[in-house]
Amino acid sequence: MTRDLSSLTDELADWSTAADRLAEVATDRSGSPDAGAPDLVVRARSVAEVQTVARFATAHGIALVTRGGGSGLAGGAVAGTGSIVLDLSGLDRIVELRPADHVAIVEPGVITADLDAAAAAHGLFYAPDPGSVAISTIGGNIATNAGGLRGAKYGVTRDAVLALDVVLADGRLVHLGAGTLKDVAGYDLMSLVVGSEGTPGIVVGATLRLRPRPAVTATIAAYFASLELAAEAAVAVRSTGVQPSVLEIVDGATLGAIDRLAGSHLHERGEAFLLAQVDGTDVTAEVAVVEKALVGATEVRSSTDPAVSAELLAARRLALPAIEATGRALIEDIAVPPSRLAEAVRRVHAVAEATGTTIYVFAHAGDGNLHPIIVVDAEPGAALPAAAVDAADRLFALALELGGSVTGEHGVGLLKQRWVARQVGPDVDGLHHAIKRVLDPAGILNPGKAV
Fold first, then answer.
1. CB atoms within 10 A of CB 296
2. How far apart are CA 80 and CA 57, in angstroms?
3. Which sign does the torsion angle of CA 55, 60, 65, 67 carry?
4. pTM of the entire structure?
5. Which pLDDT score is estimated for 196?
6. Exposed/middle/buried for 206, CB within 10 Å: 0-12, 13-18, 19+?
7. pLDDT at 1 over 50
8. What are the tens digits of pLDDT across the range 245-281?
9. Residues 331-389: pLDDT tens digits?
10. Confidence category of residue 415, pLDDT binned at 50, 70, 90
């Protein structure tokens, strides 16, 4: 500990200055190098403790970095020398489920999949479905406005958030939003917090919207000779009038990585994979429409068997872990208008060729969110090769050229601030910083992230 924090730690039940624990919380899944070890990690046991830590950090001008499951992919939870890390994973209660209202009230450390499972007991489900659903927390999902596989039909985290309890930098606890489906009382400050990466306040509670669990879900799997053909088919599916709940594409290189990790044989079937799901009470007609739109597919099969669906979704969820097993992954996340998905895929391949880099590609095709993953031969924490940095910059420029965004769901973190400023322009960038100063005058909440 580089400073006297005893007046703070005397009020806390669970904290550590052990070197191994500090190293563990210094970074996140992005692989971003840490900026040195933080001074202290606090595992909050109550909202009151969160308030205590916030008040202390503001009074002493100490950087305060909040984290949950550490599964962030943009460096949003990286903590530097002299900072305090506030670990909210212990605030993990599902406080209340109100089935009649289709509402859940939860603490931020609740694992996303656990909430969905609890809702299932009441015939409901929690719609946001990030690839890290088994390890990511609700608080982290809110911090990045996480999307996921079901975004094509059910939207992203913001679409499921009705109200938030937020601790401000000075320790005040405020309630934003309402536990109703409609609410226009004042500015929508709640939506300001969603996706803000903990920079205006610390989420300590959430009122979330649940949905009726569909009676039937059909899964359609198709294979293609190229990712471009799969992307064109995904655009065609969107043009049919059918709204899939899931519409994903995966390139051949990623299929090969999944096969090596899981012992499967997906890559033998084609150079690209398209996965679609439709749900409702009777999906027979919708399945037929989707299958008809899959022009150019070399193989198509569909099933309403939950076991088959689970198997195919599990393979898709392995995409990122499988790529990470091949080397150090620079995980990118761009969004384009869905109609321009096929063009974006072609241009990503052109970036790989022009820079001599290896880029794996998979995408949430239903909402135009691509994940081009650059794999480099470099140790974690080491400087990235110039070619990889060049490729990443070209990918961000591509997203903006196509009318898209430099981040669809992973957030800005440490990695994309320069590009966000370019995307939004100087006036809006200035507004971001002005709002930050109002809510966090001392600049202690997750400094250097998001804005």
1. 14
2. 14
3. negative
4. 0.90
5. 93
6. buried
7. no
8. 999 999 999 999 999 999 999 999 999 999 999 999 9
9. 889 999 999 999 999 999 999 999 999 999 999 999 999 999 999 887 776 778 999 99
10. confident
For 358-375, b where at least 16 C-beta lie within 10 A, e where not — what string?
A: bbbbbbbbbbbbbbbbbb
Residues in the chain: 451
Q: Please state at what angle helix 227-238 crosses helix 284-293, rounded to 10 degrees.
A: 140
CA-angle at 436, arms to 432 and 439, nearest 5°: 140
Q: What is the pLDDT of residues 299-329, one digit of tens each?
A: 999 999 999 999 988 888 999 999 999 998 8
Average pLDDT over residues 139-151: 91
DSSP letter at 91? -
Beta-carbon contacts of residue 406 (< 8 Å; ≥ 6 apart): 334, 396, 399, 400, 416, 419, 420, 422, 423
DSSP string of 103-164, one letter each residue: EEEE-TT-BHHHHHHHHHTTTEE---B-TTTTT-BHHHHHHHT--BTTHHHH--GGGGEEEE
Q: CA–CA separation, 132 vs 222, rounded Å?
A: 24
In the sheet that 202-209 helps form, which strands lie side by side, from edge to edge? 94-98, 103-106, 202-209, 161-167, 173-177
Task: Write the DSSP symbol of residue 179.
Answer: S
Tokens describing residue 429: 């960038």
Residue 378: exposed, middle, or buried by beta-carbon count in 10 A (0-12, 13-18, 19+)? middle
Contact predicate 421/396, CB 8 Å: no
Report which residue type is found at 337: P
C-alpha 63/C-alpha 2 separation (Å) is: 14
C-alpha dihedral over 297, 404, 243, 159, to 10 degrees? Answer: 140
Given a cut of 70, whether residue 214 has pLDDT beyond it is yes
- The answer to whether the CB of 207 falls within 8 A of the CB of 162 is yes
